[in-house]
Amino acid sequence: MTFKDEPTASLTDNIKGHLIDSEYDVLDVIAIPSHSDRMIRIRTIEDAFEDFDSELDEDTTSFIIRIKKSGKTDKAPDQLFRPVNYKNGSDEVYLASGKLNTPFLVQNAKLLCEAGDYALARNIYQTILENRETSYASHLGCAICDEELGNYTDAIPHYEEAISFEPKLEVFRRLAKVMLKIERFEGAAEACERALTFSMANGDRLDLHLIAGDALLRADRNLKNIERAAQHFRQALELDAHCSSALHHLGEAYLKLNKIQEAKSWFSKAQQLEGESQETLSGLAQCALATGAKKEAYELFLRSIKIGEPRAALIFFLVKTAYEIKEYGETEKIVADFCDTTPVSANLLYSLAGLQFHLKKYKDSEKNLEKVLSIQKNHKGAMDLLQLIERTRK
Questions:
Q1: Is 107 among the domain residues?
Q2: Distance CA 252, CA 246 (A)
Q3: Are residues 296 and 343 both part of a single domain?
Q4: Who contacts 264 (Cβ-Cβ below 8 Å, separation ≥6)?
Q5: Pair 333, 373 in one domain
Q6: Are residues 310 and 343 part of one domain?
Q7: Any domain includes 285
């Protein structure tokens, strides 16, 4: 203990007074002269440690206290200290053995997470891990903090370590979803497949098959991944024959495998089950387009856009089909509304300008072509269309 202008005996008595009803006794209080040479102070501390070490056992805890006069004289000496709430190290950072009190730190980190302070909570978990106090709780806590802070890549190894301690379903699920966020689709599917080797409720098994299948459909388009995705969706249907998500995803998988009739069959089953949805209508439209039924495809794309929030991919399909069957009027209105309300790419604006050109709305077309060139100054299609408009006007 370091003291400034306070007799050691008086301080010892004061501390003893506050510990009188506890299980603790004051063993020693050593004054360190504050105005002495630095080496003398260091030597005093070293001597104190030697004394402490000679008497140290598992029931002994040492403190370093630094105090000074408050400048107030109206307080009794025993009011200089407040009672210390300390029970076998359970509410302190360090245990009597000198090791980190990991359960105490984890509990505080959890409270910080509940309060939304993930950065500070992560610092606590990281301190635990840096001190080689690894555990399921510390790795899982660090992973969740990293995920909440947007550090998805950093979260992954901590989720993996947590799984190595306790392979819990929820941790597998969180790992898969983090991987999806950074487009590690095959890794997400593999996390689900590892989880599926464990016993679980059918509802959880269904959910994992759907996540894995969706991830594989979004991965690099190769035959193996698409077939794996289809297998997951078939297994999902074995668990729930009325799972509309599995039905239309199976249609999507067979469409990518260029098995058009099978794809149409699955999309139709999904439609029979859930009625018209954007997913099933767009799937059926793509099947129609693949078989050359362009007018049918256009009508299906149009219906799919009108019953849900328009998506850029559907708009492009609609435009492509509209050009082939020369349905410019209604398509131009839909694309123009979409461009007015949604951040769009240069290519979509170029498509709109093309539709307006065919409708002889040359000023609107030029305006949109100028927007295209402001986004992508060397867009060849836009430059060529501007020249075509000039020649048409002459």
A1: no
A2: 10
A3: no
A4: 251, 284, 287
A5: yes
A6: no
A7: yes
Domain end call among 323, 348, 374: 323
Q: Which amino acid is located at 369 in the chain?
A: L
In a domain, 299, yes or no: yes
Query: Is residue 208 assigned to a domain?
Result: no
- Domain total in the chain: 3
What CA–CA distance (Å, rounded) separates 278 from 304? 5
Q: What pLDDT digit, counting tens, does each position of 8-44 carry?
A: 555 555 554 444 445 566 666 666 655 545 555 555 6
User: pTM of the full predicted structure?
Assistant: 0.69
Name the domain boundary from 261, 296, 323: 323
294: containing domain: 241-323
Domain containing residue 299: CATH number: 1.25.40.10
249 and 304 fall within a common domain: yes
Query: What confidence tens digit (pLDDT) does each residue in 67-98 have?
Result: 555 554 443 323 222 333 334 445 577 777 77
Q: Residue by residue, what is the 3-state secondary structure of the chain?
A: CECCCCCHHHHHHHHHHHCCCCCCCCCCCCCCCCCCCHHHHHHHHHHHHHHHHHHCCCCCCCCCCECCCCCCCCCCHHHHCCCCCCCCCCCCCECCCCCECHHHHHHHHHHHHHCCCHHHHHHHHHHHHHCCCCCHHHHHHHHHHHHHCCCHHHHHHHHHHHHHHCCCHHHHHHHHHHHHHCCCHHHHHHHHHHHCCCCCCHHHHHHHHHHHHHHHHHCCCCHHHHHHHHHHHHHHHHHCCCCHHHHHHHHHHHHHCCCHHHHHHHHHHHHHHHCCCHHHHHHHHHHHHHCCCHHHHHHHHHHHHHCCCCCHHHHHHHHHHHHHHCCCHHHHHHHHHHHHHCCCCHHHHHHHHHHHHHCCCHHHHHHHHHHHHHHCCCCHHHHHHHHHHHHHHC
